[in-house]
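Run log // design_07
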């Protein structure tokens, strides 16, 4: 079982010719809504990868909540751990340009009410994979890492969005997954040593005894363990929208670990899934099905 403790949002997405500079207004070409939130995105990705998934989080008692949960329900994610609050359902305001790049503003809403006491809804057991992000209070993330270890569960912590305060507990996670920008920032916060990113990743793995995974967009992914260093190439694609790529990677990565794949195999499958997620607009609607990921991996060989 994969337990995702994290955020649930409704994304409000505008397509624009180019991203605006500060203080600038640009024209949009289209607008749509889609379920989102890093936690919910990763839960859906893990479910579409073939895993059993339970979601722990919160939504508001508003009109956004049913749409925010719709695709999770469709994928048969266990939503018994999702509570309702009087705060608004979390919202992400997203602009995507013609090159697929984006800027995002997130309003936490109900996600800010996910507290350590809610972890009782996770029903953690030995062998579970607990998937976490930083769109809920950091105290809850920290507590989940501790409770998961006590239960004998494996933890995967996606370090997005960057919070300097998270550096204090990053090393508790069995697997930390960061993009290159986030890892560089955490590297400074943790005073990691090394002339380049790979060396600093090795230093992190050596100091913590854990595994660090750094995603590099079109350049693939790198991972450092206390005993080895891995690189996996990305699929060659022309991106349409990169919004959900990182979350798709994390959900598929957790599913790969849960199913018994080796680290290299889990990275390759997750990387392929993340690439395919860039071929469609939106976050959750773009998350590929397992059969499509497996087909893409076969064609890439």
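design_07 sequence
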């Amino acid at each position: 079982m994969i337990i995702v403790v994290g955020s649930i949002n409704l994304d409000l997405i505008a397509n624009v010719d180019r991203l605006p500079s500060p203080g600038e207004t640009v024209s949009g070409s289209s607008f749509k809504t889609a379920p989102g939130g890093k936690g919910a995105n990763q839960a859906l990705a893990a479910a579409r990868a073939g895993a059993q998934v339970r979601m722990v989080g919160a939504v508001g008692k508003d009109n956004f909540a049913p749409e925010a949960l719709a695709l999770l329900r469709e994928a048969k994610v266990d939503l018994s751990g999702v509570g309702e609050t009087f705060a608004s359902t979390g919202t992400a305001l997203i602009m995507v340009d013609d090159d697929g790049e984006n800027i995002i503003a997130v309003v936490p809403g109900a996600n800010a009410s996910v507290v350590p006491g809610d972890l009782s809804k996770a029903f953690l057991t030995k062998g579970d994979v607990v998937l976490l992000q930083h769109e809920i209070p950091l105290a809850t993330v920290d507590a989940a890492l501790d409770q998961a270890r006590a239960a004998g569960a494996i933890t995967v912590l996606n370090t997005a969005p960057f919070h300097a305060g998270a550096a204090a507990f990053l090393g508790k996670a069995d697997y930390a997954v960061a993009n290159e920008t986030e890892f560089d920032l955490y590297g400074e916060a943790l005073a990691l040593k090394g002339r380049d990113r790979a060396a600093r990743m090795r230093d992190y793995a050596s100091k913590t005894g854990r595994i660090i995974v750094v995603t590099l967009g079109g350049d693939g992914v790198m991972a450092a363990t206390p005993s080895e260093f891995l690189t996996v190439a990305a699929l060659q694609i022309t991106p349409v929208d990169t919004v959900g790529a990182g979350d798709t990677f994390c959900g598929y990565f957790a599913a790969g670990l849960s199913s018994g794949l080796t680290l290299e195999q889990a990275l390759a499958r997750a990387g392929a899934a993340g690439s395919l997620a860039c071929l469609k607009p939106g976050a959750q609607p773009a998350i590929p099905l397992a059969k499509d990921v497996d087909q893409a991996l076969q064609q890439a060989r």
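The chain has eight helices and 13 strands.
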